[in-house]
Design brief:
2 domains, two-stranded antiparallel ribbon, alpha/beta, ten-stranded mixed β-sheet
Length: about 270
């Protein structure tokens, strides 16, 4: 398997919240895994106080003192999106800013808008840690395209760097998908199983064990059920910029509200 094209620039959405350093530590982990440059995005005024806080945090996490900090003004989500475009950031890392309601993590407004309006890849951490937890199990939702194949290679690259136990390569099939296949005269189950196996075999040798699954459900939320059933640490969703402007398809719109674990959207 050839190495994927790297993320040249990784940035972290920074706020001086109680979890500021935890999110920064997660961003450092991602920087290290992809050998990228890391910058910070902060919505607020640049002052001696903020500069001092950043300097202290960078030192505590053994990050370069001269790490770029992009200061922006205005609405937090709008300002972060503006910084991403202005500085050509490939991947933005942020806290999911969720609240727990009946054991379901709900996205905050900034995280939701990064998913809905962003044009870069996004990684959201539901429970960021100062000492990041290993990403032992990763679920990758298949998209049959060149972008989907490259995305899987990149996910497997991260999995190898993380010494992950297993990557589940999953094809989500809803009742609507099966009805459409039946209308077209295609034996849905055999067709999808064969396509998925072929998709993975085309990768060649991989350094991480892969398990392929076709999962079926009435709605796309079956993917969340699967993620929970295998106790996954990361859900990876490739979104081809050439399709639907890189936005979530209807069967994954639920990710705008509830995410079952850390989420990586690849654009």
């Amino acid at each position: 398997m050839t190495d994927p094209s790297p993320y040249r620039s990784v940035a972290v959405a920074s706020t001086f919240s109680p979890r500021f350093e935890q999110v920064l530590a997660e961003a450092k982990r991602i920087r290290d895994r992809f050998d990228s440059e890391l910058s910070l995005v902060y919505v607020g005024e640049k002052s001696e106080e903020t500069s001092g806080k950043f300097a202290a945090a960078l030192e505590r996490l053994s990050l370069p003192k001269n790490s770029p900090i992009h200061y922006e003004q205005g609405d937090p989500a709008t300002a972060i999106l503006r910084a991403i475009e202005r500085n050509e950031i490939d991947l933005i890392v942020a806290g999911a800013l969720e609240k727990e309601v009946v054991l379901h993590p709900f996205l905050g407004n900034v995280a939701r808008r990064l998913l809905r309006e962003g044009r870069s890849s996004v990684i959201l951490f539901t429970h960021p840690a100062r000492q990041p937890e290993p990403l032992r199990k990763i679920v990758f939702l298949v998209e049959y395209s060149e972008h989907g194949s490259n995305s899987l290679r990149r996910a497997l690259h991260l999995a190898a760097r993380e010494n992950s136990e297993r990557v589940y390569v999953v094809r989500l099939i809803t009742t609507f998908d099966e009805a459409r296949a039946k209308q077209e005269g295609i034996p849905a189950e055999e067709d999808e199983d064969a396509k998925l196996e072929h998709f993975v075999l085309d990768l060649g040798h991989t350094d991480v064990p892969i398990e392929v699954r076709c999962i079926r459900g009435n709605t796309g939320f079956a993917a969340a059920d699967f993620v929970n059933s295998v106790e996954a640490d990361l859900l990876v969703v490739p979104l081809d910029p050439k399709k639907n402007a890189g936005q979530l398809p209807p069967n994954l719109e639920w990710l705008m509200d509830v995410i079952p674990c850390n989420l990586w959207v690849m654009r």
